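[Backbone geometry]
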Amino acid sequence: MKKDVEHCFNVSVTGISKTDISKVFLGFTEKIKPKEHKELKDKVSKHNPNAQLIIYSIQEIPFRLVYYPGLADKYIAGVKTTKGTFYTLPDFLKTTEKGLQPSLTNPFLGREDEIKLAKSHLLSNDILIITGSQGVGKSKLAVQLAEIFETELAFEPRVIASSPVPLWEDLNNFILPDKKYFIFGSGGAKALADEYEIPFLGEVPLTENLRECSDNGQELSADNQIVLDSFHTIAQNLAREISVLNSEKASAVNEG
């Protein structure tokens, strides 16, 4: 391996100036001792103090795999790196190919104005909330944005799946300080209701008007019909569930 390092800095062979080399990569399947690692690092520094030694060895694989959710799960038997809440974009898209809902791998058509507006917002803010009724294409729009930010701006897309499993451990493992991430998720409340086998009463779109009224302690304006309809639906579902509970309670009393 020392010869490999020497070869990297052999200007007569490579034709590359030592000062132009910023990183030296060494890949091998042998085990390496700390003393040997230091010797290799010192040899690189001797040729160029600003150059960085990066090693890919059999000892390094576990530490590197942990930052790629799903990769170790897929190729190393018995290894589970995620809790089922965090996916790379390709792995998440594969999960959508099963089930009754349309797959998110289908082609994205039109909606240029929405993409332009959403992209502009995300370039100046860290958070974008996409709201709308079920089936209008919120998740597909988020996927398209994630792919744009990956190809054009070098972000790494990650998806928070619809799962009630605690998310903190996955985030702690896979969010690195030197990376840029595009993270999105949907359907968590519905999944949580299904997990605990309790009725899902509904969902409220977090529109700008709703957020402003909530922050300022004001009554929701009457022109925000989408939000008002959502609250109306939740009220109806709640009334229905209460009626069912009262009926069950009355039946139990009569039987007693």
Remarks:
- The two ends are 83 Å apart (CA to CA).
- The chain has two domains: 2-59, 71-198.
